[in-house]
Amino acid sequence: MSTTDDIEEAVATAFREEWGQVVATLIRVTGDWDLAEECAQDAFAQALERWRRDGVPRRPGAWLTTTARNRALDVLRREAVGAQKLREAAVSARDEGPYDPDHEGDDSGVPDDRLRLIFTCCHPALPIEARVALTLRTLAGLTTPEIARAFLVPEATMAQRLVRAKRKIRNAGIPYRVPPAHLLPERMTGVLGVLYLLFNEGYAASTGADLMRDGLCAEAIRLARLLARLMPDEPEAVGLLALALLHDARRDTRVDTAGDLVTLEDQDRTRWDRAEIDEGVALLAGALRRGRPGPYQIQAAIAACHTTAARAADTDWADIAGLYGELQRYVPSAVVRLNRAVAVGMAEGGEAGLALVEELERHDELSGYHLLPATRADLLRRMGRTREAATAYERALELVENDAERRFLEKRLAQCRAA
Amino acid sequence: MKYVLFICTPVGGEELSPAEIAVDPRFASYIHEVRTRDVVKGGARLRPAADATTVRVQGDEVLLSDGPFAETKEYIAGLDIIEVADLDEAIALASRHPAALAGGTVEVRPVWE
Fold this sequence. Notes:
The complex is a heterodimer.
Chain A: H1 4-30, H2 33-54, H3 60-79, H4 83-96, H5 113-121, H6 128-139, H7 144-150, H8 155-172, H9 184-204, H10 211-230, H11 235-248, H12 274-288, H13 295-307, H14 317-330, H15 334-348, H16 350-362, H17 371-382, H18 386-399, H19 403-418
Helix pairs in contact in A: 1-2, 1-3, 1-5, 2-3, 3-4, 5-6, 6-8, 7-8, 7-10, 9-10, 9-11, 10-11, 11-12, 11-13, 12-13, 13-14, 14-15, 15-16, 16-17, 17-18, 18-19
Chain B: E1 2-10, H1 18-23, H2 25-37, E2 40-45, E3 53-58, E4 61-66, E5 74-83, H3 87-95, H4 98-101, E6 105-110
Antiparallel strand pairs in B: 1-5, 1-6, 2-5, 3-4
């Protein structure tokens, strides 16, 4: 006999693992995003009641999908909307057969509905904020208020955003499918971009400031894991997962108890998450073996260089500088060049790094970006040119906006002035 | 699904007549594609925005103004009504339109059916 807590726990677990699948299948079957969400919600509510009475089914996901689908058929029948829609849904239900707990076949060869869902949510015809919100709502099962809090916008705004996105999908005829081969590379980049943005939103939030924002990292990792599992032949999908894990491993050490920034160099490496690092490194190695590198694999390789160095002094900066050079070929941005300048400065000495920083300054790139003078300052500080470093820190302080970063720069400035 | 492609070109850009478009080599592959696939269900090449008259009604009064409804850097030079499976197909076709290739823009709008 299961206790109440066991059942609630089982439903909560099923929700985390199966929500996306249930919604994705229901969208395919009914073609109606709102109905799909309603029926999925209803199925989870029923699960709480029925599982308590009958026990947890062997395949909770299949039970939930079947329950949600039956509910959708009921609703469609009752409303008698679109006889055509009902016919399609009934045919599709028949094709897949009734729910049979002992013969839930594996879905090999059948495109996973969640892939259709993720590619549709991340369709480039939708505004980027809508792609992110829709992915979190339909695939990850976050509620509208939760998503609103995570992105610091009013709930009504977020609700409106979701309504508009779903309306556009329907009215503009955005197809519910995994894109054909000729569109796949481009669309894949879009999906990865959404997941990466999601991760960064969570990662950029300072620890403890808002747990909901922190939770975005976990959601992004879960979604990246799903994508990597569903598309194992896409090394960039695996690369993104590796990158997220390798960053996430250091998450708790980036800020101290007072909320101040701790640089990579000064982080307590014994507190890095070993399991995440090992998994990230193994995933990356597997992806790289496929011989199709890309920006996510390269960034993961850079993160791996950092997280696998036992001490900061052991960091292979030459390797990192090379990887940034490689990354520039895919992402020709000034920020990547600035990062390369840091790595070159560490590998070959401050002068070499400064030369690259000056090149960026000469071309007036990144003007207004506080990390440009902050990088100059750090290179000078390491070279013992503290007076010049102080001037550069002052410049960086004029530009910085984030409080934790401001306190960090002020501390460095004080050190340079005292030297 | 039916879509309208609004072909937008920069103000002051080329103003080819329908006859010129028909023989312009830059349009050849697009025209060939839409003919062989039979996706275009209608359309029009429009005279330049300078020839537009905008009509508004305020109460009983009909207000006319010279020019398009909004002054923009681009104007609608023409439109194609197409019938394709979904937005991806409409985007693919729009992205091969000579106006889009020449730096103009194509707005894809689903027809309200």
